[in-house]
Amino acid sequence: MQILDTNPQLFFHLQQQRLIELIRNGKVEEALEFAQEELAPRGEENQSFLEELERTVSLLAFEDVKNSPVGDLLDISQRLKTASEVNAAILTSQSHEKDPKLPGLLRMLLWAQNQLDEKAVYPRITDLSTATLQDPSV
What's one Pfam family here (predicted)? Predict the structure, then answer.
């Protein structure tokens, strides 16, 4: 996948998430082998990757992982963070913006209506969720 070739940080985070899932599922030997073969070489290239790898592997040192200093790695928010990073990379690669455009368009609509209120009488959208129009009072 071209996105992963051009974004080493994203690739690392996906691999890190895979390691977290192996640890979550109690596959300690497989997790250690994966960390050594796939993630350690990347950590040697990048200091921040190495720090993240060390933090992730330290999950193996705790019996009660969820209440450990690194327990947040097992939280659903970690999965969501990785998923958001993947989504943003995909949108960027397809020449879309990282953020959805609809909220900005709705703000622009409200601004335009406020500008028109001073200058014209027109059917105004009163409910954005249903696009209900209010007839102008003439």
Answer: CTLH
Strand pairing category for 132-134 and 124-127: antiparallel
Residues 66-78 have pLDDT tens digits of 889 999 999 999 9
Dist CA 17 CA 43 (whole Å): 15
Exposure of 91 in the CB half-sphere (CA atoms within 13 A): 12
Is the model's pTM score more than 0.70?
Answer: no
Please give the span between the terminal C-alpha atoms of the chain, in angstroms, as a whole number. Answer: 60
With vertex at residue 56, the alpha carbon angle to CA 50 and CA 58, rounded to the nearest 5 degrees, is 105
Distance, CA of 121 to CA of 123 (rounded, Å): 7
Whether the pLDDT of residue 94 is over 60: the answer is yes
Q: Which two tokens stand for residue 38?
A: 């796939």
Per DSSP, helices labelled H in the chain are 2-6, 8-24, 28-34, 40-45, 47-57, 76-93, 102-117
Task: Give the 3-state secondary structure of residue 83.
Answer: helix
